[in-house]
Every structure is written in structure tokens, then in C-alpha cells.
Design goal:
By secondary structure, the chain is mostly helical. It is built from 9 helices and no strands. The longest helix has 38 residues. 31% of the residues are buried.
Amino acid sequence: MDFIGAYAPSHLTFLLEGFLVTLEVAFLSIVFSFAISIIVGTLRYAKIPVISRVLAVIVELVRNLPLLLIIFFTYFALPEVGLKLEKFYAAILALVIFESAMLSEIVRSGLNSVDKGQLEAARSSGLTYSQTLWHIVLPQALRRMVPPIVSQFISLLKDTSLAVVIALPELMNHAQILNGRNVNYVIPTFLIVAVMYFVVNYALSVFSKRLENKHV
């Protein structure tokens, strides 16, 4: 093991550059998947004929596919039908597809957890169904969704490492490149990579707990 060589400034900078790509992919994937999941989860909760059933089939299909397969599909299969994406965008698209399905179930469950009596009371007071969802049901549901949603975001951040299979220049890809230069870098490199993932994920966990305690 060569800790001194592995932790040379140029190597640490190289790993940080990869980690920045990891965070960028994770952030964009979180933003888009959360927005889509709110829409999909709400539409399924509303039980709109045909639409909710179609969405249910799509969600169940995606949830039961491995993320790795979806990454391969977005990068290798889509070009066959005329849609070629760069590695960065292919990874984001795959993560958004997968995480939207997972998060939409959390959203739907959160909405279902709100007492139906509140919905009926809001409707009887003159609010429309959409107004009731937006102003009464969704705010309460979101507070209950915080822990599982943040947990899913943590999983998403860790799942970005799967993009190494398409050579996305993220953290794991850069770690592999360093390890390929010198076998004595393997353990030191993976240790610092583990620390980087842990710091961000632990921060998200603490943030989630504080939000949960704030709304208790």
C-alpha cells in the first residue's frame, strides 16, 4: 500500500474532479426525478381512469428492472433508434427514469396516509379537488415523506457509481484509473472514495432527521 503516492495532490484533485461529476449527476437527477415523481404519484393517487393504470404499469415495470440495465439502454440502445446521448446525459436520464418510479411510490403512499376526512372536509368547504390536493393533502404528505425521500436520494447518490460501466468520468471511474496506474493505490484510493461518499450521505441523513424532528 502506498498512501503517500495515492494521496499526492494531483491524485486527490483528480478524485475530487470525479466526485464533482458525481454530485452534478446526482443533483440534476434528484431535481428532475422528484418533480416527475410528484406528478406521477399525484396522478396515481387521483385514480384517473386509464392514465393511473398506464402509469401504474410503467412504474411497476421500471421498479422491477435493474438500474444497470436502464443505464445500458439509455447509452447503448437509444442510439439504435436515433437518440444518441453523451455519457453525462445518458446517466442522468437512466437515473431519472429509475428514481422517478421509486419516488412516485413514496409520494403515492404519502398522499394515501393523509386522513380522507380532511379531503372530504376541504371539498365540502368549497375547494376543488385540485385545490384540496395542492393546499391540504400534499403539504401534509410531503412532511411525512421526508425520511423515505431523503433515503432514496442517498441511494441515488450511491447509484451514480454504476455509471462507471459507460466510462462516465465520475468518482469511481477516476478511482479505477488511479488504481490502474499502481496496484499499491487500490486500498488507499478506495478508502478516500468511501470517505467522500460517507460525508455527503451522512450529511443528508442528519439533514433528514432535523427536518423530521422539526415537523414532529
